[in-house]
Amino acid sequence: MELSFQNKVALVTGATSGIGESTAWLYAEAGAQVFLLGRNEKKGRSIALAMQEKGLRAAYFHLDVTDEAEVKAVVENIYKKTGKIDILVHSAGFGVRTVFTELSYAEWQRQIEINLHGSFLIAQAAAKNMKEKRYGKIVFISSGSIITGTGGGAPYVAAKAGQLGLMRAMAHELATYNINVNVIGPRNIETPMFSGVYSEEGKRQLIEKIPLKRIAGPEEIAGLALYLTHDISSYITGQFILVDGGRTYSS
Fold first, then answer.
1. Is 135 an active-site residue?
2. Can you list the alpha helix ranges (DSSP code H) found in the chain?
3. Using an 8 Å Cβ cutoff, are 129 and 151 in contact?
4. Is a pLDDT exceeding 70 seen at residue 151?
5. How confident is the model at residue 206 (pLDDT cuts 50, 70, 90)?
6. Catalytic entry in 27, 60, 135, 156
7. Residue 148 CA to chain centroid, in angstroms?
């Protein structure tokens, strides 16, 4: 069964690459009016134009999720244009590997600000408008590393784990307004961030640890995001869903 998002308005952060880009494409192809949000203006406008040339409904807005004023202004602008915000998929994120004992406080703050504070700002802005319509779907793209940890990734793991706590509090509080909030935890996904960490040899070694014996494509995470934001899954809220090819819990 194909999932239709006709008459839905979807916001996707981090929409200029990786999981965010794939998610934006799937929403547009499923009939949604999609707003691509991200910092790479050239790439964002290019993707939106490519969608428009295919007859899809899409637009790009520059967005730094750590800029409170910009987040509020962009979300309010979209709300005024469309009259509603049905869906938010927050895929924006950032991480670099640093040995814990050599990690500077400035780098710690930077990753916490982008990955956790940014989640709060964009989710709060969207949820305020969703409450007015008593309808909404929010998905955070987190990481499977919040279960396993990862060497050199302390601030990233801490921030992504913080998303999980934020989601559960939001899911509890917003349920009365018919707003669902969930978290996806990807692991082993072929994205620019992933490729920046693993060499080709590293990927081959990693694949041996994965029961499905492959690295997933970003569209596989995007597909789950669409499922969780469709009315077919309206009884799912407050959940963390790990997507890792079976790696984490394999013996």
1. no
2. 18-29, 41-53, 68-82, 105-112, 118-133, 145-148, 154-174, 192-197, 200-207, 218-228
3. no
4. no
5. confident
6. 156
7. 20
Reported as half-sphere exposure (CB side, CA atoms, 13 A), residue 70 has a value of 11
- Across the chain, mean pLDDT equals 94
Query: Which tens digit of pLDDT belongs to each residue from 106-136?
Result: 999 999 999 999 999 999 999 999 999 999 9
Closest alpha carbon to 224 in 141, 119, 122, 143: 141
pLDDT at 189: 85
Q: What percent of the chain has pLDDT over 70?
A: 96
Domain definitions of the chain by residue range: 9-242
Q: Which residues of 47-72 are buried (b: 16+ CB within 10 A; e: fewer)?
A: bbeebeeeebbbbbbebbbbeeeebe
List, for residues 34-71, the tens digit of each pLDDT value: 999 999 999 999 999 999 999 999 999 999 999 999 99
Pick from 28, 27, 23, 3: which is nearest to 13 by CA? Answer: 23
SS3 of 209, please?
coil
On the question of pLDDT at 249 being above 90, the answer is no
Residue 144, judged by CB atoms within 10 A of its CB (0-12, 13-18, 19+), counts as: buried
Residue 35 three-state SS: strand
- Quickly list DSSP for 128-186: HHHHHHT-EEEEEE--THHHH--TT-HHHHHHHHHHHHHHHHHHHHHGGGTEEEEEEEE
CA-CA distance, 133 to 119, in Å (whole number)?
21
Query: Homologous superfamily of 9-242 in CATH?
Result: NAD(P)-binding Rossmann-like Domain (3.40.50.720)
